[in-house]
Amino acid sequence: MIDIKNLKKRFGDQIVLDGIDLTVGNGEVVAVIGPSGSGKSTLLRCLNLLEEPEEGMIQVGDIKINATSYTKKETYELRKQSAMVFQNYNLFKNKTVLENIAASLRITKKMSKTEAHQIAFGLLEQVGLTEKASAYPVTLSGGQQQRVGIARALAVNPTALLLDEPTSALDPELVSEVLQVIRSIAKKDTTMMIVTHELAFAREVADRVIFMADGHIIEQGRARDLFDHPKHERTKRFIKQINQSDEPVTI
């Protein structure tokens, strides 16, 4: 479902992604872990061209683009293949919960209001928020807002779901409700890439875990293998340090 070859991205003189090669299979859940500044979120954002790479090939579903030369139409077609769940929800403040989810269906799928709202309500049921359909985002907790964000992403029936630190902006007591929703989606064979600092969650949900540092994939493997028997010294240090402390890890 996702295929990346020799992906490179820099911000000024800083190389953020340095020749990334990665394939994600249909229905596979891949967690991306690593220290701050390792390129995790940039990798995810390059998949739908929210960040524009300088080199490389990106394929999501049936759409493939060459980073050195692509058209606006190709950008649009690539973005239709995936849906993004952001750290800070990015909900429309002037729309109700139901309208937030239905908006993408009205715009991209040209659905009627009735049909879009029917699908949106079904997705609210999936994330356990039907009672909040008429509420506005400002009245919701962070965990509830993120669950709405996940429902909105699922509304367009994406080839791949991309989640960028979906719990990082939440208070600790709200994290579990969002992770539970993601667990339920993972069980439905949804292709997902999740950038996360929740290592226990990554171990439980992911089919494969990727450890990144300094713009490179340092190590990857089955979740249990990588966490229990990491091969690279940097992976060992990262897992050990983050398990010992909630403080940011520098490697």
Automatic annotation (TrEMBL):
One of its GO terms (molecular function) is ATP binding. Keywords: ATP-binding, Cell membrane, Membrane, Nucleotide-binding, Transport. It holds the Pfam family ABC_tran. InterPro entries: AAA+_ATPase, ABC_ATPase_HisP-typ, ABC_transporter-like_ATP-bd, ABC_transporter-like_CS, MetN_ABC_transporter-like, P-loop_NTPase. It is found in: Cell membrane. Its main location: membrane. The keyword Transport applies. CDD domains: ABC_HisP_GlnQ (cd03262). The keyword Glycoprotein does not apply. SUPFAM superfamilies: P-loop containing nucleoside triphosphate hydrolases. Residues 2-239 form the ABC transporter domain. It is a peripheral membrane protein. This is Amino acid ABC transporter ATP-binding protein. It comes from Alkalicoccobacillus plakortidis.
